[in-house]
Amino acid sequence: MGAIRISAALFGGTFDPFHNGHLRMAIEVRETLGLPRIVLLPSHHPPHKPGHPVSEAQHRFAMASAAVSGFSGFEVSDVEIRREGPSYSLTTVQEFRRAEPGVDWVFVMGADSFGEISTWHRYEELLAACDFLLLPRTGTPLSPAPPARLHIEKEEPHCYSWTGESYRLPGGRRLYCPALPALDISSSSIREKVRSRKCIRGLVPSEVEEYIAEHGLYLGSGEEGRQ
Ligand code: ATP
Hints:
By secondary structure, the chain is α/β, with parallel strands linked by helices. It contains eight helices and eight strands; from the N terminus they run βαβαβααβααββββαα. An eight-stranded mixed sheet has the order 3-2-1-4-5-8-7-6, with helices on both faces.
């Protein structure tokens, strides 16, 4: 039996804003895999969204923190915000591994993000640095389509307590694709709704809805409306 070794998850994102898709997925991952800890990582300068203005890190950090306050097992880390320059996931994973060498980390990301992994900084090293878990994203197949040079092997038979698929990455790390329900919510659709003065209740935690209103986020025209 391939016993699961993961003891904590890293879930990074721009979180502009943190929404119920992020929150619900983090809860599903935590419960499905029985993880005691999920660390949310608001990024400083997301290297994958060049040219897109992003709200100030202090706002994005505050919204993620408000959303999970009161949920045991959730933490929000400011390591990427404090670091100068772009938020490279490899640097983050290396920092967490150094700081807590006894923890087996799994890096959580949407299936859409994994499809672009070959554009990430030193992605082959990143894929060898920890295990990965893909979240379903509407419009993206959950089964990973690896970049051309990446050979991944499906594991058979499936031997975990949850349903879904798992793969071996080059270097021996695992890629988990649990069958979780997809939630069609995105930060960009929320920004667009706020800009159009539409209601975002149900799409973001109430704390985030209040924060957006209190700070007047996303009201400006186009993506320049971010603060
Ligand atoms: P934007 O619409 O601005 O591109 P986003 O909604 O994708 O933003 P991010 O902060 O960029 O939010 O996402 C962080 C991570 O969470 C990414 O790996 C993304 O794929 C994943 N993610 C975001 N929304 C969902 C969702 N509804 N379901 C599953 N994964 C999600």
